[in-house]
Design goal:
2 copies of one chain form a homodimer.
Chain A lengths: L1 H9 L10 H4 L2 H6 L7 E4 L2 E4 L1 H11 L8 H31 L6 H23 L11 H10 L12 H12 L1 H19 L1
Antiparallel strand pairs in A: 1-2
Helix pairs in contact in A: 1-4, 1-9, 5-6, 5-7, 7-8
Family (chains A, B): Belongs to the GST superfamily.
Enzyme class (chains A, B): transferase
GO molecular function (chains A, B): glutathione transferase activity
Chain lengths: 195, 195
């Protein structure tokens, strides 16, 4: 979704290639992605991995995802790293724990600890966002990644504790490019589920 | 260390400002870093946070940390994101758990799970590096961040299981710029500890 969304924001066409979990661990894919994950990105001779790097590559080559002003551009890149390195880790850990540690005797205690970490980040992010629409001026690749990270919290109730963050995420989802990416992703999911 | 090392690689002078843990949570610092962490970076009117974004900013403005070829540059940026988003999280979690979860009922099991995750990443990274000196051609900001992430494993014994990664880290530490950064950081530490 992150890469699709970025491509839709800048109006670049793309072709999607789906992979089975098995194929992700095979040599052909490991040549593209050393850690056997998705997404990867191919454009001519270039093969990239890491969604942050792919979104940055798209943002650097096409107008619409990074500001022209050099300082504003650097700050937008800082928000890209912050979304992936500072905000996402406890959110990702919570998702993993809720799958793999659900039956452990310590599950409730660990879940509370992870949710405390998430709340601390959300509190700080909420404070910084205030009543602005986006994190630093106009919508940028930093917002794209931050919204996509916060979307992982849907259904957890955690986002509802911070009305300005809920509104921020809703603004992201309301963008036409997000909707096009979501619809395209959903179509693939439905086709794969029924095919 | 990451920012120091980057500045030493490109030969830019810098001034260090130390912070107490208390000052990190105060409004003056939160204005620079929304999540109340270090490092931050100031250059004229620009204030940045997130070590990945700071290293990238330095690498983009000065020769020596990113290749000139556009595709090689994009791949180097992918390794920056990979170091921070894919390799570091389980290494960081292990360090945190060994401090804060040592007395929890889940500690042994969680430590084993984290070390399995770390080994999986190291195995994949070792496979990709092979017998090359650096991850993709010449030393770049991707190597700088990857070596700095792997250095967190010193003393764990985990790195010793992958001789080519141990040698890779040693090559990083042997760089004159790394040594200058390390010596400068150590001098600050000694001064702060005895002052």
């Amino acid at each position: 979704m992150r890469v699709r969304w970025a491509l839709e924001e800048v109006g670049q066409p793309y072709h999607v290639r789906l992979l089975t979990f098995k194929a992700m661990k095979e040599p052909a894919h490991l040549a593209l992605h050393p850690f056997g994950q998705i997404p990867t990105y191919e454009e001519g001779d270039l093969a990239l991995f890491e969604s942050g790097a792919i979104v940055f590559h798209i943002a650097e080559r096409h107008a619409g995802l990074l500001p022209d002003d050099a300082n504003a551009r650097a700050r937008s890149i800082a928000w890209m790293f912050a979304a992936l390195n500072t905000v996402e880790p406890p959110i990702f850990d919570r998702a993993l724990a809720s799958i793999f540690e659900r039956d452990e005797p310590w599950y409730e205690q660990r879940l509370r600890a992870l949710e405390d970490s998430i709340r601390q980040r959300l509190e700080q992010l909420s404070g910084r966002l205030g009543d602005a629409d986006w994190l630093d001026g106009a919508f940028s690749a930093g917002d794209l990644l931050m919204v996509s990270v916060l979307l992982r919290l849907k259904g957890s109730g955690l986002l509802d504790e911070y009305p300005n963050l809920s509104a921020y995420v809703a603004r992201g989802e309301a963008r036409p490019a997000y909707k096009r990416a979501f619809d395209a992703q959903l179509a693939v999911f439905i086709a794969a589920s029924t095919g």
